């Protein structure tokens, strides 16, 4: 599949038709639009919709060559032209994958875990990694290990020494394994933290600290040079993006902390969503519909962000996971031709689990001047033993959704105040403060239950949504040039802080001031 530069989006008549259809479509409170994929239910009833919108969406996707591009994605075509790579994360979970490097690495990982479990070895795991080498593992461990871990699992991502210091607290060095996840094996935070781990082991009198390390990387040679035993290095490949890598041996910590079955279940669920994405007609294709609704809300209706509201305590890490997946993929404004994209692209993604979110920022979602579309995510069945808790959780999720959509008119608010016995004057004044604008779009995703399968399907759903949005916007969702510049600047400033010569490079005045102030040993006492 050779890369073909897309036409500028706004030059397409299909884009103009789509915009027109977005403005004329409306949510219809009297009907539902619920689609199902890989066992998940996606309720789009809270989004604008019309048959004209649906048809215009499909024509726009066809104008972007959706089917051919989807085939390229699913079959290892070059979908990342700026890095000249495939984006073949789906191969990592393909059930039909022949015995290949992928299955060999997966079996090596599973064998490592089997041996460690049989020997009751490595009671403590310290996972060192950041971004895509961290969030997916944190998510799966917190989703399925929240109440049944025989191993202690700590995560260290940040270069801030407090993170490593806290992670090492009260661990037994003799029974601690450091899992270093880094596709590039060059990430400063990860290498520095790994070095502190090695020093900690040596300080405890461990003769060969390197035996306490495993690594997952696309640079096995670099890991071996660092000192990780070859038999404990697991491969990743260049054609797997970091934020798409939890399907690889990056999930070693999940397998050790919870079980290899959890990893396998997530792969199976994601593969089921891949099949749906590949085969479902576009009008019933859940990732496609999520994508088009998202483009409508972002690029046409002008919502600046997307709120993720998982109504499940175990999915707290879903928000940062999706922040990286979405914002590192779509936080771009240049198309594949190198031309500026003249419509708003990639929203800011934010959120937290409900019901906590209701007591944190739902006021803003209900009554701020703009609000944000919300992806509500909830499991129909819970895995704890208090049914009334789950009933209440479900009720709050549905109620918040209804309030955002339907709102509360002035007349309703006034009647409410009058029923409370307020004076007519006070009621007429206070009612203004109780009006909810409504018409705030939302999608409800219902998982039957939180299982490795359903979580895998959910994450693949978002991956394919993001791929489809990148295609329509003309964005390469698989590179991340925006994260490199800051790293280069930081290397120079670090040098100036650690080895001050009195002369510093040309910065802005504020940066100059603070580099001078932070420079060692000149760092001022206060
Ligand atoms: O944030 C930039 C980034 O390259 C991410 O894309 C990646 O997940 C993270 O840093 C860690 O990179 P690595 O796995 O190479 O250490």
UniProtKB/TrEMBL annotation:
PROSITE patterns to which the protein is assigned, alphabetical: P_GLUCOSE_ISOMERASE_1, P_GLUCOSE_ISOMERASE_2, P_GLUCOSE_ISOMERASE_3
Keyword Cytoplasm set for record: yes
CDD domains attached to this UniProt entry: SIS_PGI_1, SIS_PGI_2
A GO-annotated cellular component: cytosol
EC number: 5.3.1.9
Subcellular location: Cytoplasm
InterPro entries documented for this protein: G6P_Isomerase, G6P_Isomerase_C, Phosphoglucose_isomerase_CS, SIS_dom_sf, SIS_PGI_1, SIS_PGI_2
GO biological process, one term: glucose 6-phosphate metabolic process
Catalyzed reactions per annotation: alpha-D-glucose 6-phosphate = beta-D-fructose 6-phosphate
Molecular functions per Gene Ontology: carbohydrate derivative binding; glucose-6-phosphate isomerase activity; monosaccharide binding
Active-site residues (renumbered): 328, 359, 487
UniProt keyword annotations, A-Z: Cytoplasm, Gluconeogenesis, Glycolysis, Isomerase
Pathway annotation: Carbohydrate degradation; glycolysis; D-glyceraldehyde 3-phosphate and glycerone phosphate from D-glucose: step 2/4; Carbohydrate biosynthesis; gluconeogenesis
PANTHER family per the UniProt record, alphabetical: GLUCOSE-6-PHOSPHATE ISOMERASE (PTHR11469:SF1)
Function: Catalyzes the reversible isomerization of glucose-6-phosphate to fructose-6-phosphate.
HAMAP family (UniProt xref): G6P_isomerase
UniProt record similarity statement: Belongs to the GPI family.
Protein name in UniProt: Glucose-6-phosphate isomerase
Source lineage: Bacteria, Pseudomonadati, Pseudomonadota, Betaproteobacteria, Burkholderiales
């Amino acid at each position: 599949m050779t890369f073909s530069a897309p036409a500028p989006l706004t030059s397409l008549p299909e884009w103009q038709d789509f915009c027109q259809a977005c403005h004329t479509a409306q949510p219809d409170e009297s009907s539902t639009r619920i689609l199902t994929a890989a066992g998940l239910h996606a309720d789009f009833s809270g989004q604008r919709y019309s048959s004209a919108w649906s048809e215009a969406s499909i024509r726009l996707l066809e104008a972007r060559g959706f089917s051919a591009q989807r085939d390229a994605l699913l079959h290892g075509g070059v979908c990342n032209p700026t890095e000249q790579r495939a984006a073949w994360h789906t191969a990592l979970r393909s059930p039909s994958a022949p015995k290949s490097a992928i299955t060999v690495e997966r079996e090596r990982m599973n064998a490592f875990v089997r041996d460690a479990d049989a020997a009751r070895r490595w009671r403590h795991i310290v996972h060192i990694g950041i971004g895509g080498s961290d969030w997916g593992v944190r998510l799966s461990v917190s989703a399925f290990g929240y109440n049944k871990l025989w191993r202690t699992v700590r995560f260290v991502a940040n270069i801030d020494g407090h993170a490593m210091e806290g992670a090492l607290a009260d661990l037994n060095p003799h029974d601690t394994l450091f899992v270093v996840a880094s596709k590039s094996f060059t990430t400063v935070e990860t290498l520095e933290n790994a070095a502190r781990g090695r020093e900690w082991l040596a300080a405890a009198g461990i003769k060969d600290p390197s035996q306490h390390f495993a690594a997952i990387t696309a640079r096995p040679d670099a890991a071996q040079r660092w000192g990780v035993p070859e038999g404990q290095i697991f491969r990743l490949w260049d054609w797997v993006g970091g934020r798409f890598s939890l399907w690889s041996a990056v999930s070693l910590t999940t397998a050790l902390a919870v079980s290899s079955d959890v990893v396998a279940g997530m792969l199976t669920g994601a593969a089921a969503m891949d099949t749906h994405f590949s085969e479902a007609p576009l009008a019933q294709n859940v990732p496609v519909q999520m994508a088009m609704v998202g483009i409508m809300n972002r690029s046409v209706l002008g919502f600046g962000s997307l709120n993720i509201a998982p109504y499940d305590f175990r999915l707290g890490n879903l928000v940062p996971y999706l922040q990286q997946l979405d914002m590192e993929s779509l936080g771009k404004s240049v198309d594949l031709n190198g031309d500026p994209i003249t419509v708003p692209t990639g929203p800011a993604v934010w959120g937290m689990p409900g019901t906590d979110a209701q007591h944190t920022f739902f006021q803003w979602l209900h009554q701020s001047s703009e609000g944000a579309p919300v992806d509500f995510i909830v499991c129909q069945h819970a895995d704890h033993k208090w049914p009334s808790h789950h009933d209440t959780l479900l009720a709050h999720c549905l109620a918040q959704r209804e309030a955002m959509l339907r709102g509360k008119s002035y007349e309703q608010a006034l009647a409410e105040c009058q029923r409370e016995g307020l004076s007519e004057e006070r009621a007429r004044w206070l009612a203004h403060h109780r009006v909810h604008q409504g018409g705030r779009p939302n999608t409800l995703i219902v998982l039957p239950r939180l299982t490795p399968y359903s979580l895998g399907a959910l994450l693949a759903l978002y991956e394919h949504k993001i791929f489809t949005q990148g295609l329509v916007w003309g964005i390469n969702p698989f590179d991340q040039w925006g994260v490199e510049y800051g790293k280069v600047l930081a290397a120079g400033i670090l040098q100036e802080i650690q080895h001050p010569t009195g002369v510093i490079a040309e910065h802005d005045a504020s940066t100059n001031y603070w580099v001078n102030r932070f420079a060692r040993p000149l760092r001022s006492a206060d």
